[in-house]
Specification:
alpha+beta; 10-stranded mixed sheet; about 240 residues; 8 helices; 10 strands
Length: about 240
């Protein structure tokens, strides 16, 4: 087992200190999405590392680089790997790990225009309980994630949001939001079936509805999967 990463150390300190992402964010004066990025590995460090360490009661050097003991007075002067056998088993075997959807691989040969997608977070791990609440009985092999760049679905999915795609659904499976390829361009749009043609809809009213995709044009559509949920990745002020 390799050396712990910054996110591993942060999660360990939060678990032992009884902190949630929300409570830690409030304690150090950060937005919760910023804490989420640190916990998920999307960000490797923070300017507030010393303040975070003080709140969690650990040594800043340990939190930042894994140097020395976790806390002042600890007997061990080497950084733990994943601490106890129980917690190591939980993180390795029970974590529900979701990978970034690689649209270039999924689409096969040829260039893909992914201007609607950005790569902010490449992987994220949830606890089994969180995964069941968010994804039901789906397995981690069924789900991929995408960071959305465009605002064509604003009102439902905002720029920067992280969306989760069920890649086991690679055909039209009822009205809903899909990640799909049309010719060589990747999109996240609402698809609706009307008789013998498919409507492509944007929830943002500033975008025009596409011309209907007819049955003869269906071979130009490659569906990556159906969008089953999203979480915000940008700070939003509500008061």
């Amino acid at each position: 087992m390799g050396k712990m990463t910054f996110s591993d150390r942060l999660k360990l300190a939060m678990d032992e200190g009884g902190f949630t992402q929300g409570s830690l964010a409030e304690a150090v004066g950060m937005a919760q999405p910023s804490i989420w990025k640190l916990v998920s590995g999307g960000a490797k460090a923070s300017k507030k590392t010393i303040q975070i360490a003080n709140v969690l009661g650990v040594r800043p050097e340990w939190l930042s680089d894994g140097d020395g003991p976790m806390r002042i007075g600890d007997a061990s002067h080497s950084a733990p790997l994943l601490v106890s056998e129980k917690s190591a088993q939980y993180r390795i075997e029970d974590g529900f790990r979701i990978e970034l959807l690689d649209v270039a691989v999924s689409a096969g040969p040829g260039a893909v225009n992914t201007n609607e997608f950005i790569e902010i977070v490449r992987t994220i791990t949830y606890t089994p309980e969180q995964a069941r609440m968010m994804f039901g009985n789906r397995s981690e092999e069924q789900i991929r994630m995408i960071n959305v760049k465009g605002d064509s679905m604003s009102g439902t999915i905002e720029p920067g949001d992280l969306i989760f795609v069920d890649i086991s659904i690679q055909h039209f499976d009822g009205d809903g939001i899909y990640a799909f390829l049309y010719d060589d361009t990747a999109h996240v749009k609402r698809l609706q079936k009307m008789k013998d043609y498919l409507l492509v809809l944007s929830d943002n009213s500033r975008y025009q509805t596409w011309d209907p995709i007819t049955r003869d044009e269906m071979n130009r559509v490659f569906i990556y999967g159906k969008v089953i949920g999203s979480v915000p990745q940008t700070y939003r002020r509500h008061g």
